[in-house]
Specification:
By secondary structure, the protein is of the alpha/beta class. Among the domains are: 127 residues, no CATH class; 284 residues, 3-Layer(aba) Sandwich (Rossmann fold), CATH 3.40.50. 47% of the residues lie in helices and 9% in strands. The protein has 21 helices and 13 strands. It has a 9-stranded mixed beta sheet with strand order 3-5-4-6-7-10-11-12-13, sandwiched between helices. The protein has a two-stranded antiparallel sheet with strand order 1-2. A two-stranded antiparallel ribbon has the order 8-9. β12 and β13 form a beta hairpin. The longest helix is centred in the middle third of the chain and has 23 residues.
């Protein structure tokens, strides 16, 4: 037998069979080679090998098993329609489900057909398949994982279609299953419970006559605090494993629960495992009092982990740093109904997370920092929530892009083929964003990165970036700090300069770094000069305002010097801004902890999940001494222009 322990689709097999949790699955030598090729990531090669095996196989029953395996490989390559056709062949030959094992196998098959329909965006057919699977699995124990998956998937479809009343029963059943699973005391089950609570609160916010939301609101708040505290505790003690190791731990646990009996089942489970991570992560000061809090918003294709080097640097200097996943990226990619880019919802998410930060840290100053797409989000959110902020740092938010015509043509071609079908756009973005091999490799290897987007998503993104300029005019009294690298090959500095000029606040600065590329805060090598500059800027704006100020100037940093702007850069201005926080309070009472559907304008409840913690770790609190007093909510005073002296 081949003992092939499953390690994130990349492991060796050296006996004839698959070993999983002391159980061996017999396979022949050809199947062994196919499986290993697939686990090595060579899915197309594995598919062709399997097709040859199917053509040569004479035994009908074995041939059906090979079709099941082929469907798994096709689904892993996003060939949903081909996979569905082969699954329907398998379903036609499926034996009657006479016991719980048979019911589970039959329900899994129907769910996978539903997943294929979902991938084809045939939501009505997908829902019918999920309902059929629920009927088959109705006799299974209430805590069965497949029930949680089915209820959540069905609910996601109804949320996409805005059928919120119809979705309520699925949400309630999903929550009931999650509560049963959470009795295990394991962290992955605690994560399932959190998502179920979040989805329920999400749904209630869209119903015309929802039940009392306060009980579920309190449950969500408690889950956030528990999971985030535990993650912070692990990280502060150096015990939080890398994401790849966490994926391996939870993937093994997931596969073991379904107890696969065939190679086809094993490949299916490996392919459909979802690594659910926290949409909000953070780095806390451990040796000193928190001076201020910073909420970071990532760029297109990236996720909240991109700010790890920045978070580690700034937390060591006394800042609490948080980083969020934008809707349609990171953790949202594994949430049914939430996979597509929705930037306006991300702005509302910022408001909810500001409330969470205020609740955790009391009256400390809060700053909003974003890069690229995140820089545009930061500007817009700053205009909307300026009452809750002491300043905005916007890095490379330009809507003007190099090679824009080439990208536009590519999007147009794919739009004509299928406007909703994602295509691989990440490679081009990565190539332009950085010339540093290590940065490119890290982006490609990021398990949470989004490398594919649909033409519709990219068109919404382009419009959002262009229209950000109008929001800048609303930034009339909030301090704003712009950053632009002169070696940026993705966006044109001219666009950032124009946004700088559009900001009406008199308290604004432009920091131009001559030797930086597009990624400045989301990279391994943090600019010491820039970190010193924003630290001084935040320290200054975290103190009471004074009126004896002078004109502000744009700063240019080339190498180790800061001087006047380059040709084409805007003239300097300066100052501060406050907008109101709508849809809830950021006072720390917890009343702002809300969730939203993909299409709503409501705010999002920061989420967590099991993938951050080992499966077998019991659920427990890790006290970090976080304050929950109310946020200091003072309004920024309008200031006279001031001058920023070059060092």
């Amino acid at each position: 037998m081949i003992a092939a322990n499953h390690h994130s689709h990349a492991n060796s097999a050296n006996q004839q069979g698959i070993q999983h949790n002391h159980t061996f699955i017999d396979v022949n030598s050809t199947e062994q080679e196919i499986i290993q090729t697939a686990l090595d990531g060579k899915l197309f090669d594995a598919e062709k090998m399997l097709e040859r095996e199917i053509n040569q196989e004479k035994d009908k029953e074995k041939k059906i098993g090979l079709f099941y395996m082929l469907a798994a490989l096709e689904k892993m390559q996003e060939k949903s329609s081909e996979a569905r056709r082969h699954l329907e062949v398998v379903l036609h030959h499926q034996p009657p489900a006479i016991d719980s094992t048979g019911q589970l196998r039959h329900a899994l098959l129907l769910k996978r057909i539903g997943d294929c329909y979902y991938g084809e965006r045939k939501y009505g057919d997908a829902l019918a398949s999920y309902n059929a699977a629920l009927i088959i699995s109705s006799a299974l124990p209430i805590g069965s994982r497949i029930l949680a998956d089915l209820y959540e998937s069905a609910m996601g479809i109804l949320i996409i279609e805005k059928r919120y009343t119809d979705a309520q029963s699925y949400a309630e059943k999903f929550l009931a299953v999650a509560k049963e699973r959470a009795k295990s005391g394991l962290w992955d089950d605690a994560g399932v419970l959190f998502w179920a609570q979040l989805q329920m609160l999400n749904l209630y916010r869209h119903m015309k006559n929802p039940p009392d939301t306060e009980p579920i609101r309190q449950e969500v708040s408690a889950s956030i605090e528990k999971l985030m505290n535990y993650r912070f505790g692990l990280e502060s003690h150096g015990k939080l494993p890398p994401l790849s190791e966490r994926k391996e731990i939870f993937e093994k646990h997931y596969i073991a629960e379904f107890a696969p009996e065939s190679a086809a089942e094993y490949i299916w489970l490996a392919g459909e495992f979802r690594l659910r991570t926290m949409p909000v992560i953070g780095w806390m000061p451990t040796q000193q009092k928190t001076k201020a809090a910073i909420l970071c918003v990532h760029g297109l294709g990236l996720d909240n982990q991109a700010f790890t080097p920045f978070g580690l640097k700034m937390s060591a200097n006394g800042y609490a740093v948080y980083s969020m996943d934008v809707r349609g990226f990171g953790a949202w990619l594994t949430t049914p109904g939430q996979e597509d880019l929705r930037l306006n919802e991300a702005i509302n998410d910022v408001g909810s997370i500001l409330g969470l930060i205020s609740q955790r840290h009391g009256g400390v100053p809060i700053y909003l920092l974003g890069e690229s797409m995140g820089g545009a989000i930061a500007l817009r959110a700053g205009a909307k929530y300026s009452k809750d902020l002491h300043g905005v740092i916007s890095s490379v938010p330009s809507a003007e892009r190099f090679q824009a015509k080439k990208m536009g043509l590519t999007v147009a071609v794919h739009f004509l083929k299928n406007p909703n079908k994602p295509f691989r756009v990440g490679d081009m973005v990565v190539q332009q964003a950085s010339a540093i091999p290590r940065v490119r490799e890290a982006w490609h290897d990021d398990l949470k990165a989004k490398m594919e987007m649909s033409p519709k998503e990219l068109m919404r993104f382009a419009v959002f970036m262009r229209e950000t300029k109008f929001s800048c005019a609303k930034l009339n009294d909030l301090p704003v700090f712009f950053v632009q690298g002169l070696k940026d090959r993705l966006v044109k500095p001219k666009g950032t300069y124009e946004l700088f000029e559009a900001v009406t606040s008199q308290d604004k600065n432009l920091f131009i770094i001559g030797d930086e590329e597009h990624l400045i805060f989301e990279t391994f090598n943090q600019s010491g000069m820039l970190l010193e500059a924003i630290t001084a800027w935040m320290d200054k704006h975290s103190t009471p305002k004074v009126d004896d100020t002078k004109n502000a100037s744009a700063s240019k940093a080339t190498g180790a010097s800061v001087g006047a702007p380059t040709a084409g850069a805007p003239s300097a201005g300066a100052s501060s801004s406050s907008a109101n926080f709508t849809g809830g309070s950021a006072s720390g009472t917890g009343s702002n902890l809300n969730a939203a559907s993909p299409e709503s304008g409501d705010r999002w409840e920061p989420a967590s999940s099991s993938s951050q913690l080992p499966s077998g770790v019991p659920l427990k609190d890790t006290a970090l001494g976080v304050s929950t007093s109310k946020k200091h909510n003072s309004k920024h005073k309008q200031k006279e222009p001031k001058t920023t002296a070059a060092p």
